Amino acid sequence: MHIFEILYHEFIGFWGYDQLWKIIQTQNYEALLTQKGIQAFLRPVLPVLLLIEIIRGLFHQRYSHAQYKISLFTYILNRFISSFLSIAMVAFCIGFFEPYALFKTTLSWYWFIYGYVVWELAHFVYHYFGHKVRLFWCLHSTHHAPEYMNLSVTYAHFFLEAPYADIIRTTICILLGVNPPLLFLIMFIDGTWGSFIHIGENLLKDGRLGFLNRVILTPSHHRVHHARNPLYMDTNFCNLLNIWDKAFGTLQDEKQQVDIEYGISRPMKKGDFLDAYFGEIVALGKDVYAAPGIKNKILYVFMPPGWSHTGDHKTATVVKAEYVKEHKQALRLEGQP
Predict the structure, then answer these.
(1) Where are the transmembrane segments (predicted)?
(2) CB of 228 within 8 A of CB of 261?
(3) What's the pTM?
(4) Which of 79, 108, 282, 312 has the most Cβ atoms closer than 10 angstroms to its Cβ?
(5) 3-state DSSP call for residue 227?
């Protein structure tokens, strides 16, 4: 019976309505005006949207269980092995680095703006290294493995990615003065938006969101980020504010002439959960084993994916440069720099 109780609580917890239900039961609706109340109200939104997305896919005959298989298995596995790792990393970084903060902020609107800009920088750094360092790509690639875009992809992560991400993001934010209450507020807002931008075409055909596409990073931008098209590789690393992508030249709008191909460039066993979850680790292990000399073995771990000791590099930078060179005239007509 114990296992059924665990499964029941996991199922209920997935929908995230427990706190909202308590507010409704106690009729303490004033709580909805607090930060915790807002969080309780918004938590069920993503699971409900995911359910609607699946229903619409079924209704329009665009649903395939393969679209959700990898994300579902990843979510289930991660629930068993990493429930508290990320929280522990955040708490450790706050406790360790807070005494060394350059200054301290408060929970006010102007420090909120500052904090969000700092958070986006921290997110950019983590995300950039997740694509540019082979070891970190092994942790991040599971999130890019699905060959479809839908809300379930937000749950597809290798179990060690969240701790690695939170070490970098929390450390940068704390050292630059973002105090813990402000950090937790920003993390909640950014996490909510970060989940929403994975919304699929079944629920939102055009992800540009009108004029917002020029102001923030929209679902359209994040669809580009998940693409394996050479033009789209390693772009749009921020989450909500696009300032750091603009600053570092990684902002890329969706091109109507370039159909998005989701997934990673490495050949994969289609719909294979184990390959999506462990495939990049296995590939790295093979490259390290076959590499001549200690130096090359170390370089395979820390150089970008696609780097080769032979000099025949297939990194995203090389592949993209070759594509731009080959399609230079067409890209110039489309206004691509």
Answers:
(1) 40-59, 80-97, 109-129
(2) yes
(3) 0.82
(4) 79
(5) strand
